[in-house]
Specification:
Elements: E1 12-13, E2 22-23, H1 27-30, E3 54-55, E4 58-59, E5 74-77, E6 81-85, E7 96-104, E8 107-116, E9 123-131, H2 134-151, H3 161-172, H4 178-196, H5 206-218, H6 228-248, H7 274-287, H8 289-301, H9 305-309, E10 316-317, E11 322-325, E12 327-332, E13 335-340, E14 346-349, H10 352-371, H11 395-409, H12 418-429, H13 434-441, H14 470-478, H15 481-494
Antiparallel strand pairs: 1-2, 3-4, 5-6, 6-7, 7-8, 8-9, 10-11, 11-14, 12-13
Helix pairs in contact: 3-4, 3-6, 7-8, 8-10, 8-12, 12-13
């Protein structure tokens, strides 16, 4: 009589190793009758069989089972199906184990172990719900185990932070401007690679990044301490690179998400006052009329330095008093590179005084070219030292000329980029909404100039009435014609 609670012995199959009998393999394990035994396909044996795919004369290459995934995951189970992707001899692949259990009729819960959290030490699993038969669930579990193995972070020598950062830069170069690529390469050379390049990407923690930021802020590098804004840029590089590393399977999570770079102190924008701008224009008209035109156009349109340098004659419409901002010029690897605008192509309206300044500028260029026997094409550059206007100004030389002008006028604390802030401030003071001002300046969002200081003098930009934006037209109606005329007269008297 069978004793209650006794374990049932597995049936024996004759013809085993050395003439002995061995436990039979279950039918669902092979998918067919196991009359060939386990030696034919080299499958793993049950735990009680003693031998696990090892022959007496040493390890043998395992044959591919008809119902085993080509990746080498053998399906074994007793109560719950277990997928053991143990490393084959000499391959060095990571161990990925999984199991499944029946949750209901035709419903199975698949679960695969993918490792431990480097911070908390907790085990991580990938779970899926599968509906179907037991054999189909086993195949789905094998496929899930292979997918989890593919997503398991690498631990080879190619998984260092240096390799990941340069792989990310090669991938991001397609969407970066040449100037951005050059600046990013400089940050990678110093200080990112010397401090973090030798670390495994999968082992970098949030504490490592916070310690790195603290060292940059307190100790700095060869050129001294790093500013909080610079550390923020370095943090952005690391965050984007680690995010792509997660997608590529180099690491399981992004430690830069929880990192804490130093806060950038807010700085009140101080654009030049109308009196300062008038002094600069008067001095530039007497010493360098072309630079005076550049300053007047920058203060009127708020365009970037590279956008004004790259502007051509065909971009200016004197009839409609509009200019098209379609390109920019930057310095990359000590060469001038023409590229698209930073955010968007836009059309900017001009006031009458700016149109008159541009007409006078073109007349000077035409007179100079005629005296030299040269002709200026319609596609010629607006700002050029060449007689035919074929070669643009250099951006760094333009900023240097502006600094020298400010020094000669006895003005301190004014940058060329502050003219862009001045344009935003005057537009906001004229009652134009922030979104319209951001569109005129070429910003994707209105955040950069939303905190500009408002002045008492509204903007002398009557050309804003001709913008196509309905919101802009509604805002411009709030500014009375008398206010604009009064402001323009005051500006003319100052100049």
């Amino acid at each position: 009589m069978k004793r209650r609670g006794a374990k049932r012995r597995a049936p024996l199959v004759p013809g085993g190793r050395g003439g002995t009998s061995e436990p039979a393999l279950s039918r669902w394990r092979h998918g067919f009758e196991s009359r060939w035994g386990c030696d034919r396909w080299g499958c793993e044996r049950h735990p009680w069989s003693g031998d696990r795919s090892l022959r007496e004369d040493g390890p043998q290459p395992r044959s591919v089972h008809p119902f085993v995934h080509p990746g080498g995951c053998a399906v074994t189970a007793d109560v719950a199906l277990v997928v053991d992707c143990s490393p084959t001899v000499g391959l060095g692949r990571p161990v990925v184990t999984g199991s499944m259990r029946q949750r209901g009729k035709g419903a199975w819960q698949l679960r695969v172990y993918v490792g431990r959290d480097p911070t908390t030490g907790r085990k991580h699993y990938v779970e899926r719900t599968f509906r179907g038969g037991q054999r189909q669930a086993g195949r789905a579990l094998a496929a899930l185990a292979l997918e989890a193995e593919r997503l398991t972070p690498r631990s080879s020598k190619h998984g260092t932070m240096e390799a990941l950062l340069y792989e990310w830069l090669a991938h991001a170069t397609m969407s970066f401007s040449p100037r951005t690529v050059e600046t990013t390469e400089g940050y990678l050379r110093t200080p990112i690679i010397p401090a973090l390049g030798a670390l495994q990407a999968s082992k970098v923690t949030t504490a490592d990044l916070d310690r790195f930021y603290r060292d940059l802020l307190e100790r700095g590098g060869q050129n001294g301490q790093y500013a909080p804004a610079t550390i923020r840029r370095i943090h952005g590089i690391l965050r984007r690179a680690l995010t792509l590393g997660v997608k590529w399977g180099w690491l399981s999570n992004n430690p830069a998400i929880d990192a804490s770079p130093p806060r950038v102190p807010s700085r009140e924008l101080a654009p030049p006052t109308p009196d300062v701008l008038a002094r600069l224009l008067r001095l530039a008209e007497s010493t360098n009329p072309d630079l005076a035109t550049f300053i007047a156009l920058a203060a009127s349109t708020g365009a970037r330095r590279g956008e004004l340098i790259a502007m051509r004659r065909c971009d200016i419409d004197f009839t409609g008093a509009m200019i098209a901002v379609e390109r920019g010029i930057v310095i990359a690897h000590h060469e001038l590179v023409e590229q698209g605008t930073k955010t968007q192509i836009r059309r900017v309206a001009l006031d009458r005084s700016t149109v008159d300044v541009l007409r006078a500028h073109f007349h000077r260029q035409d007179t100079r070219a005629l005296a030299c026997g040269a002709t200026i094409e319609r596609t010629a550059l607006v700002f050029s030292h060449d007689v035919e206007c074929a070669y643009p100004w250099r951006p760094d030389s333009t900023s240097r000329a502006f600094r020298m002008l400010c020094r000669e006028a006895g003005i301190t604390g004014v940058r060329l980029h502050d003219l862009r802030h001045d344009a935003a401030t005057r537009l906001l003071a004229a009652g134009i909404d922030v979104r319209t001002v951001a569109g005129r300046l070429g910003h994707g969002t209105p955040a950069p100039h939303s905190t500009c200081t408002r002045t008492s003098c509204p903007a002398p930009i009557e050309g804003l009435r001709r913008l196509s934006s309905k919101r802009c037209r509604r805002q411009c109606r709030r500014v009375t014609r008398s206010r604009l005329d009064t402001c323009c007269c005051r500006m003319r008297r100052r100049i």
